[in-house]
Amino acid sequence: MTEAPRTPLQAALDGIDYPDSDSAHAAKVRQAELTKPAGSLGLLEELSIWASSVQGRCPPHSFERTRVVVFAGDHGIAAAGVSAYPAEVTAQMVGNILAGGAAVSVLAAAADAGVRLVDMSVDADTSQEVSRSDISRYKVRRSTGRIDTEDALTANEAERAIEAGIRVADEEIDAGVELLIAGDLGIGNTTPASVLVSVLTDTEPIKVVGRGTGIDDAGWIRKCAAIRDARRRAWPHRDDLSRLLAIAGGADLAAMTGFLLQAANRRTPVLLDGLVVSAAALTAQLGNPRVVRWFQAAHLSAEPAHDLALRRLGLTPVLDLGMRLGEGTGALVALPILRAATRTLAEMSTFDEAAVSTSVSTGFDPA
Ligand SMILES: Cc1cc2ncn([C@H]3O[C@H](COP(=O)(O)O)[C@@H](O)[C@H]3O)c2cc1C
Ligand SMILES: O=C(O)c1cccnc1
Prior knowledge:
The protein is an alpha/beta fold. It has 14 helices and 5 strands. The chain is globular.
């Protein structure tokens, strides 16, 4: 009997390996030889070691070719009054990103990173938007099911969304990208993201509920109820990545999960953004725990579920700026710090090269 062909998701899950430990070791050795007191570059030293391991080379490149892929999607749960903004804002913000006026546009320009927008489930026809690439190519449907009472996606839609994320990662990596950032855009998306975190960290709903775009107390109570109900529907499927994304995620979260898994499968590092992307990272971790070794957490979002997600992922965020926006913005602010880490490791002189004396390891003699 011939076996069924592996799906792209299965191939990604099976293919994920660890980053290169020899390069990590070489980076540690080189850090000790550079003209500075041992350990004095703090977290930059750890970031440089991670960069070496994921690039498989020491010294590492400085991630000049970085791309943000913003996965946009509407969410049926927005109708439950869980956001401070109306659902039309998603499509309006798509236009704003394409016009270069969004926070992600400005921060990407400042950090010299490219931006790509992918419409997975925006509740409007984005194929009409003026854009250099066809942002609607991977669209799975308009909006999603209301996750408190129905599934976000059918099984087939979830599979197509995951595979879209895998293909987007392939396209970016084939074009020569060195570092990927995933961003999110979609009114209501902190609700499914919080449900995924609640299920995958086994945390009671009330502890994951945040203010998102800035909901008031009445909205917060509605959001609690929505998360509680969606969590109850998702809980029996907590070991099944695709089912979870179909029941309580959405097309954008499913695409992000495929994107993150395929990046790791193709040995391409990812700088994680806030809650929404980290919820996809947790879902990816469910599929293969090794995937996390290819991720670096950029920042800690003000959303309470983000801290829970990062703890479960075992990642320490570089920044804590009280940001709560998504779009990949937190990752873009951390990018120059990651580059600072790689450049100090690559370009500083060693004690030998600069003829600087190394530390005095034996006792100080005042005589
Ligand atoms: C103008 C505007 C721009 C945004 N850019 C990202 N988000 C972020 O906020 C939304 C999620 O929060 P919630 O779950 O409370 O709706 C998503 O659109 C997310 O991408 C924005 C939100 C707004 C209003
Ligand atoms: O942390 C995030 O990703 C986030 C927080 C609030 C709104 N949108 C996204």
